[in-house]
Amino acid sequence: MINVLTLNKIAACGTSKFGADYAVSDNCDAPEAVMVRSAKMHDMEFKDNLLAIARAGAGTNNIPVDKCAEQGIVVFNTPGANANAVKELAVCGLLLASRKIPEAITWAQTLKGQGDEVGKLVEKGKSNFAGNEIMGKTLGLIGLGAIGGKLANIAISLGMNVIGYDPFLSVGAALNLKPQVKVTNNVNDIYAESDYISLHLPYNADTKDTINADTLALCKDGVRILNFARGELVNADAIKAALASGKAARYVVDFPSDAVLGVENVVAIPHLGASTEESEDNCAVMAADELIDYIERGTIRNSVNFPNAELVKTADKLVCVLHKNVPALITQITAAVADKGANIENMVNKSKKDWAYTMLDVKGDADIDAIKAIDGVVRVRVL
């Protein structure tokens, strides 16, 4: 029986994907797999039998990804599964950045009890909440992946000019962009040309404080910033200073922090980007499929710490080796197979930064203990 631990409530359409050979529960001491959404895992101890963790969402900041790699634990995420939900909220964000909708709604509630005077008071007070239209304005996107690309296309349909920057833009993502989307290789073009800037990039040491005092200084006066990616991408002190001076007109963020709550012209949304029934279902199903593919077939797809790889078993055994990406290690692995008299019918080797994954379709008996003993190998599985 393969035990799957759920650390958060996972949609039933995902957990129901596991067949009779699996036991799924929120109380398991030694699981082979974990499904998680936002639960913090950095202080958890992982037992040797844990094979994989699937994050039902895109970000993996709540998972000790490097520690997992060292222990031969594959960490998956579900890129694109919640993209439509975040895109739709980002469209809402464009309007929230342009019109003082939250303030106007709050003010309207204060008119309760005014009876027949409400209509007159509305007409008298509505001018305090006048805004701007987005048609004809320029939207700058930093990141043109699953979410940024969708927002770029819908912004074109809404009559905006769109410019995007993404140093890691894939061919597939580029082909999905409408031809009117201008792609630049210089991020400074985004700051210089945009009336609205929307962030769609991962948070890491290189992207922290992408929006800061220096980048804001390059922007148009009255720029409007949208952040539906990660709160740490925008320096709180810098955006508050820009709002106070008029350099920035509005900051819409889906990651509230104490530093920005209550600040005038900050619209703080309580992390609703992926909070739709459809998104949670999509993430759960995708996460379950990733775990099943890896556990049963050794296939890695959408891992954040190991490379994607797939090999169909046609011989006696499929030997799957997670190891460091160092010279001569593959030679040692294949030698361990050959020394036992087995034959490698087919093999795949893929690498991702410091880590690699080798899959061997083996006819005969392979010396698994010899492979495990190789320096740099962190896990060996035989399917």
Count the domains: 3
Query: What gyration radius follows from the Cα positions, in whole Å?
Result: 25 Å
| Mass-distribution shape | elongated
| Name of the level-1 CATH class of the largest domain | Alpha Beta
Say what oligomer this is: single chain
Can you tell me the CATH topology of the largest domain?
Rossmann fold
Which structural class do the helices and strands define? alpha/beta
Tell me the CATH superfamily of the largest domain: NAD(P)-binding Rossmann-like Domain
Distance between the termini: 15 Å
Number of strand elements? 16
Helix content: 25-40%
Tally of individual helices: 13
The sequence of SSEs as H and E is EHEEEHEHHHEHEHEHEHEHEEHEHEEHE
Mean pLDDT: 96
Largest sheet, order of strands side by side?
A: 8-7-6-9-10-11-12
Instruction: Please state roughly what percent of the residues sit in beta strands, choosing from under 5%, 5-15%, 15-25%, 25-35%, 35-45% or over 45%.
Output: 15-25%
Taking pLDDT < 50 over at least 5 consecutive residues as the criterion, the unreliable ranges are none
- CATH architectural category of the largest domain: 3-Layer(aba) Sandwich
Profile the largest sheet: 7 strands, parallel
